[in-house]
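User: Let's play a game. I give you a shape written as tokens, and you guess the letters that built it. Ready? Here's round one.
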């Protein structure tokens, strides 16, 4: 089914909050075989919202919205959806009674404004909200489906997993599965990679082929649809093998980004991770703790910006710092090993470099970063040269550190020495 995701809320357009709902929904829907062809964000304006819904219903079979189901004047998503469908907007008395009981059970007054949550398009089928008060709903008309989910990410995910997807499966059956495999090509330009596989790109069908510039490497993503994971990967493998015959590449599954790939490996092998950060200033810790459940595998990050902090917290040798400077393979090695000892982690990553602007103390170029990975099979250090702004260098280094940690596990897992 051709699907469109619409997130609502002026706060998204103002940049006040990160739109993580679109990303999560796209990944979730693709895993269940739904083709997400469009994404839209619209503010809390009735006319613009109705227009966005009508356009989405014209070009997609399934439209899923997130946000605007609450009890304030700005929560207009359901009404705009009903008007876009040409449906009456009506009170569901049973939902009003449920909300009244909910608030009374908690000793809270049921205000007239809260009854806005009990209004839906006529004929809507309600989707329970296990984490909040606002129910979602699914409306069918003229072969089109409009589903409203709440805006708070935890509520949205709960409803999508526990109620929306079972509803879709019951009405439309299983849609198969969409899977991706990423080939990581290092030390090459994007245009050169494309040139070497242009015939495959031109003839693509299932799988499809896409190229992306990532920090320090080019990602060649192969995406296939199948009845199940085995059939999807069976379509991908011969194309991946052809590409790898032409271009040296590191093969790995990437469901979203390097962080999710690493987390999957950490969980699979019951490993823990820690970090020691200089130039990334805590970004590795942020990336690893942004997702729920991170305490299962991430122990902590030591942000040691000054040399004195590297010495005192991580026990980096003063002689190493004096002879090789803070930005060196030797310092990255001792930082990673120090973090692993400090947190008693199975693996540790480190970053030290020059995010810019300006060169290093011995004339090193801005964007130079050393990344260390320490584990039970020794310590590996990688030298990277990132381009772009200070922010892009820092985020690139943090992401690449997670990538190298995942590579460490994959490499030594094949020898049966990790996990």
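Assistant: Ready! My guess for every position:
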């Amino acid at each position: 089914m051709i699907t469109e995701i619409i997130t609502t809320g002026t706060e998204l357009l103002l940049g006040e909050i990160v739109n993580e709902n679109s990303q999560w929904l796209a990944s979730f829907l693709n895993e269940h075989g739904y083709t997400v062809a469009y994404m839209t964000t619209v503010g809390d304006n009735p006319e613009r919202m109705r227009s966005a819904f009508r356009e989405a219903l014209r070009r997609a079979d399934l439209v899923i919205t997130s946000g605007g189901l609450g009890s304030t004047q700005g929560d207009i998503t359901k009404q705009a959806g009903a008007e876009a469908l040409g449906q009456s907007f009506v009170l569901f008395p049973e939902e009003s009674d449920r909300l009244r009981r909910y608030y009374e059970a908690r000793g809270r007054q049921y205000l007239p404004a809260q009854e806005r949550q009990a209004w839906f398009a006529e004929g809507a089928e309600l989707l329970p909200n296990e984490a909040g008060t606002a129910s979602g709903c699914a409306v069918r008309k003229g072969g089109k489906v409009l589903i409203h989910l709440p805006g708070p990410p935890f509520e949205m995910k709960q409803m999508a997993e526990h109620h929306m997807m079972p509803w879709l499966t019951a009405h439309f059956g299983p849609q198969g599965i969409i899977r991706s495999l990423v080939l990581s090509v290092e030390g090459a330009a994007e245009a050169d990679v494309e040139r070497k596989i242009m015939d495959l790109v031109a003839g693509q069908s299932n799988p499809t082929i896409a190229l992306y510039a990532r920090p320090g490497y080019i990602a060649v993503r192969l995406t296939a649809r199948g009845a199940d994971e085995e059939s999807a990967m069976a379509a991908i493998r011969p194309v991946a093998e052809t590409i790898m015959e032409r271009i040296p590449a590191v093969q790995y599954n990437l469901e979203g980004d390097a962080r999710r790939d690493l987390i999957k490996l950490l969980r699979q092998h019951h490993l823990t991770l820690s970090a020691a950060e200089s130039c990334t200033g805590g970004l590795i810790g942020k990336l690893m703790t942004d997702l729920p459940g991170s305490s299962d595998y991430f122990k902590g990050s030591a942000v040691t910006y000054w040399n004195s902090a590297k010495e005192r917290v991580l026990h980096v040798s003063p002689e190493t710092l004096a002879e090789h400077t803070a930005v060196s393979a030797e310092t990255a090695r001792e930082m990673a090993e120090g973090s692993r000892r400090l947190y008693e982690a199975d693996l540790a990553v480190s970053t030290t470099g020059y995010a810019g602007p300006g060169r290093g103390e011995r004339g090193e170029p801005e964007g130079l970063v050393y990344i260390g990975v320490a584990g039970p099979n020794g310590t590996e250090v990688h030298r990277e040269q990132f381009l772009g702004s200070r922010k892009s260098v820092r985020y690139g280094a943090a992401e690449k550190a997670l990538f190298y940690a995942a590579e460490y596990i994959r490499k030594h897992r094949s020898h049966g020495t990790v996990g």
